[in-house]
Amino acid sequence: MAIWLTENSKIIVQGMTGGEGTKHTRRMLASGARVVGGVNARKAGTTHEGLPVFGTVKEAMEQTGADVSVAFVPPAFTKDAVKEAIDAEIPLCVVITEGVPVHDSTEFWAYAIAKGNKTRIIGPNCPGIASPGASNAGIIPADITTAGRIGLVSKSGTLTYQLMYELRDFGFSTAVGIGGDPVIGTTHIDALQAFQEDPGTDAIVMIGEIGGDAEERAAAYIEQHVTKPVVAYVAGFTAPEGKTMGHAGAIVSGSAGTAQAKKEALEKVGVRVGKTPSETARLMREIMQSR
After folding, report:
1. According to the model, what pLDDT value does residue 1 have?
2. Which of 136, 182, 197, 247 has its CA 20 to 30 A from that of 46?
3. Separation between Cα atoms, residue 284 and residue 54, nearest integer Å
4. 59-68 CB burial, b ≥16 within 10 A, e <16
5. What is the reported pLDDT for 256?
């Protein structure tokens, strides 16, 4: 089992003909993902990497039965690309693009809600989603882990990869990189709910980082709704106050948003929090070995 992305998912790539779109389309295809076409209005009717290029997401869905879009679109055009995907009512839109203006992210997130939440948005500024052995939508390396029964939700791309690699002997049902921007489509809570309901997931790794209150809200949700074991890591214990660190959302003001505050909120509800990514992997290893 997996969440949101399965072996039956049919993927289209918005911006497939660009440099990043081309590179990662090849990688997705090599991993066994069912990529069925691309979208570029200027190159509609052509083929690229052996796949048809369509003028719109709606046309691509009608012609291929696609139910997932991965967007490799420059920041200035991302808002329009995501709104097009929402208008087409594609069930899942994975927005890889980094540097999308927060105002634009807010606008397309609100647009999705206004349209009835028929399109789940993952990202922007994220590595995507991978269900090892089944499918891969985005830039997560396909060969660093195996299929298994751990669910992973992470703000950080590189830490997603590290935890997937360190726990490769147990494997993952699905790994979701939600992105670290201040406004994102899919949250920790969304993924926690899906993993809790997924019979193919036995335990959950949650990776957060400084800034905002997403991890505190996730802790409150875990206390009320999650019965599966959760381990967590919060990046940024050594970050100085008032300085933006890496992701646009990773900024600390006073005690709000600090790694320590997040760690305490999670531990209060029974989540084991590692001091390092490797310690977090060890905590999950203990849980899986004891099952």
Report:
1. 77
2. 136
3. 44
4. bbbeebebbb
5. 59
144-289 CATH: 3.40.50.261
- Low-confidence residues of the chain, pLDDT below 50? none
Strands 92-95 and 147-154: unpaired
Give the pLDDT confidence of 120-172 residue by residue, as tens digits: 999 999 999 999 999 999 999 999 999 999 999 999 999 999 999 999 999 99
Q: Are 173 and 121 in contact (CB under 8 A)?
A: no
Is domain 10-122 in CATH 3.40.50.720, yes or no? yes
Judge whether 247 counts as a catalytic residue: yes
Classify burial at 22, counting beta carbons within 10 Å of its beta carbon; exposed 0-12, middle 13-18, buried 19 or more: middle
Report the alpha-carbon distance of residue 113 to residue 109 in Å, rounded: 7
Report which residue type is found at 239: A
Q: Which of 24, 48, 188, 247 is catalytic?
A: 247
Q: Which amino acid, one-letter code, is at 275?
A: K
R_g over Cα of the chain: 18
